[in-house]
Amino acid sequence: MRRIWPGMETGTIHLVGAGPGSPDLLTLRAARLIETASLIVHDGLVDPSILAMARSDARLVSVAKQRSKHTLPQDEINALLVHEALAGRDVVRLKGGDPFVFGRGGEEMEAAQAAGVRVEIVPGISAANGAAAASGIALTHREDASIVSFVAGQCKGLSDQDWSGLAGVGRTLVIYMGVKTAPQIAEKLMADGLAPDMPIAVVENACRPEMRVLRGPLAGLPDLVMAEAVQSPALIIIGHVTARGDAAIAPLLLEATL
Fold it and tell me: Which residues are catalytic?
């Protein structure tokens, strides 16, 4: 790794949350960084309308990840960010949602710190918050839920984990990256004691014009995902709060954010 000498000027790595979709849901700080950056390293879930905010001469580098295919492994992404910063360039690392909510921002921050590179964290509206707002599903509700849990649905060893306390009466469970593993998720939750008729919602393309909110019981989750051909990005929300949501408010929110 390149050695940093006293007085050597290095760039800054900005870990920036792009929010759930619409440019209007960016923070002011995120918008300013995107508009002025000379180098943006972005995830595949960042909406094209947000990338279009970059200046015309900006270098845009996609490091999109899918379940079985990564443009760059995470170690190489870390190395790229550090290399550019050590060369004196400021880097905007642009992530869908929030950098610290299933965004691996913690790993990139640690890599920057280990190399002696300045790093700034710019939080974004998380996918869960965006999906809840756009679909009218309050993740907490005085009568239905005072606890919210966030889980990665594609985590290894799914069948070996104890999910018995994550969902149920008084709780809301939000599952990221769970489309492909929906059958295993439903089976796991019911095996750990959750009622088959527990209400669920699947929010696809939250905060975008093509957003869909699909509802049903937990036992029907696999069939719902298959019948509706649900694609990522999508969140699965499990709990009684999903029965209260009104997807009719979604067009109003989307119209306000386009």
Answer: 43, 65
